[in-house]
Amino acid sequence: MQQGGDEHYKFNYQFGMQIMATWYYLYETANGRLVSETSLLPVDPPAHLTVKTYTERKSQSGLIWNPVTLDFEAGPYRRMIDKLDFIELFIDAELEGIITSPNSKVKVFIKKLELANSVDLKSDRMTDSLAGLETLGLIAAGRAVEIGNG
Questions:
Q1: What is the distance between the terminal CA atoms of the chain, rounded to a whole angstrom?
Q2: With bands split at pLDDT 50, 70 and 90, how would you rate the model's confidence at 111?
Q3: What are phi and psi of 39, to 5 degrees?
Q4: Cα–Cα distance between 27 and 39 in angstroms, integer?
Q5: Is the entire prediction scored with pTM above 0.70?
Q6: Residue among 101, 116, 110, 102 at smallest CA distance from 129
């Protein structure tokens, strides 16, 4: 076997196929904190570390290490949209009320939106901001959830 173009796969040139490499994750046995990731077999790891083996590179597949379950799991759900697409979720009357609001928190919301490249609809900050707009009556009841769902 020879190493192919992607360092994470071994390429068998005789049969023309890629074979996934084994990945080793070392974590502190006492607290579950992940300390290392390698495709090289750990030889005699320190006694305070535990080695867990996977057939794929978990950290590259959108998964995060959970020190409680001692395994990888799905990361927090994000829903990123373009700033203009976010603005289009509001009706014109809502936008007019938001833009002309004298409320300082609304002004901060607008300024952050101006500086942003994109918007994460599922972030706690956005959920709270949309709920705040609803509480202030700048968007109708139920619109915070509707806008947050895109």
A1: 49
A2: very high
A3: -100, 0
A4: 15
A5: no
A6: 110
